[in-house]
Amino acid sequence: MAFSVGALRGGDRQRRGIVDHRLARRMLINQVRLGRISRTEVCDAHPELIRAARNVGVETSAECPICEASKLSIVTYVFGHRLPASGRCVSTAKEIRDLKRMVRKYDGEMVLETPRRKDDIRNSWLSVRKNILRTGTVNPDTMEQAYRFHEFILQQAPYHLSISPLDVDYVELTFGFDLECAESQDEVIYQALFADTPLGNAMNIDGSKVLDCQPFCSVNLDEHGSMQAFFEVRTRQKSRRGGTGRYADEPIALNLTVRKYGPVEKPEDLKKQFPDLAETCSRLAIDKLVPDLLMPISRCITSSAG
Each residue of 186-211: b (16+ CB within 10 Å) or e? Predict the structure, then answer.
């Protein structure tokens, strides 16, 4: 599930500012040393913070600039999704590593995903880019479970990411299917979908081998073009000469995407659009994708392997 956003708030990564409080801190310390501010006014740390510093803080070699009688300690708090609103105090490097596994960063993208257990390929994830937000679930126990996750994100995102209805270009839902195929995947797609067709006959050249066969088609689902469907078949990545190399284990991917364009009048409408997307996507998957794409490709994979 995804929706396009005109501009999530914030500038480019290279232009992000840095907030530095050193000047204000130095001025406050000078005011204390000059006697203009009492120490009791400055030493106002919360008892929980003091307790954390004593028990799990990392002591440094720097002296406290106020009392100059004890060493400063570093206390680390982590804030984020699925953590308490007051944050979580981490005391060991292992805790930090465990939390880092929940967050992955790519170029211009942040990804949150559920921890993966051994031999369990079920997974949920959330991806945030500058102008698009995506969520996904892999092998959910039920479709209702996956739908609840997507609807929750659609409900919460406008408020946590400051998205206005004018920012939303479209909302879309994708059903994806993976088919394991050790043979030449492009040849399989060609034989399953294009053999004995005019296009297939044009590709049937003596001594040739199918290099790339990844059909992508789209249709308008209404007369205004406000709802569209996209059918896509993708094979494993390859070099320009056809070598698959380290991508040899990638499956054939079949994707059905239903996209609903705006306008959106209020943030609540994002969640309200989802049931219609889910019903349309499910119907097209049952009536079109499975019988007309998935089954022919599956039969061709079986016959080529035999």
Answer: bbbbbbbbbeeeeeeeeeeeeeeebe
Place of tokens 């094979």: 235
State pLDDT tens for residues 179-229: 999 889 999 999 999 999 999 999 989 998 999 999 999 999 999 999 999
Q: Which of 156, 297, 142, 152 is nearest to 233 (CA)?
A: 297
For the chain, give me the number of helices (H) and strands (E)?
9, 13
Two tokens at 213?
């066969």
* Spatial separation of the C-alpha atoms in residues 141 and 137, rounded to whole Å: 10
| Claim: this prediction has a pTM higher than 0.90 | no
Q: Are 100 and 82 in contact (CB under 8 A)?
A: no
Contacts of 92 (CB under 8 A, 6+ apart): none
Nearest to 219 by CA among 236, 207, 231, 211: 231
Q: Which of 155, 138, 130, 161 minimizes the C-alpha distance to 4? A: 130
| Residues in CB range of 159: below 8 A, 6 or more apart | 267
Could you tell me the maximum CA-CA distance found in the chain, to the nearest angstrom? 94
Q: What is the pLDDT of residue 62?
A: 84
Give mean pLDDT, residues 143-168.
87
3-state secondary structure of 76: strand
Better-scored residue on pLDDT, 243 or 84 = 243
